[in-house]
Design a protein that fits this description.
The chain is α+β, with helices and mostly antiparallel strands. The chain is 21% helix and 29% strand.
Length: 169
């Protein structure tokens, strides 16, 4: 015969769960959340990594993609040429996701790109791959003797590198 278990008190009903992260930790401390019974757990924090592609496409492996450094250099050069008026924005559409392309083509252009008369020179482009399918890019662009920072995030989408974030200083 089994004995009934004692009814837990109110304090014992709250449990502490250690939530493991799927990739490298963003913070040095693990994420700990208190979850009460009957209360939905908070949504997980957005983790870096590639976004899922179209249904049925499956994940794109890094070895199936070209080296991101030449792609990044070409992207930065073409974007700055479009900002300066030397290239139509329509040529950039395949290199960007739709929200970023809309922001780039309709947004305000940096004054140094529009007003400068000297050539636009893109220096060395640095690429880091923090996780598979993501490339973080930084570059220095020069015009009229002044240096300007360019940063971008490339993700493996639709079997190729596409820009999902861009910042030009």
């Amino acid at each position: 015969m089994s004995t009934p278990l004692p009814t837990p008190s109110r304090q014992e009903q709250v449990r502490l769960w250690l939530v493991p992260t799927p990739g490298p930790a963003l913070d040095p401390e693990p994420v700990v959340r208190l979850v009460r019974p009957g209360v939905p757990a908070p949504r997980p924090v957005q983790r870096p990594g590639p976004r899922p592609g179209p249904p049925g496409a499956g994940p794109v492996r890094r070895r199936a993609l070209p080296d991101p450094a030449p792609v990044a250099h070409r992207l930065v050069t073409m974007t700055l040429e479009a900002f300066s008026g030397r290239r139509p924005f329509a040529q950039l559409q395949a290199a960007y996701t739709l929200p970023v392309f809309t922001a780039v083509s309709r947004g305000r252009r940096p004054a140094w790109c529009v007003e400068g008369t000297g050539p636009l020179l893109v220096g060395a482009v640095r690429v880091a791959e923090p996780v598979e399918g993501v490339a973080e890019v930084c570059a220095v662009a020069r015009r009229n003797g002044r240096a300007h920072a360019v940063a971008a995030r490339l993700e493996a989408l639709d079997g190729r590198w596409r820009c999902t974030a861009l910042q030009i200083g």
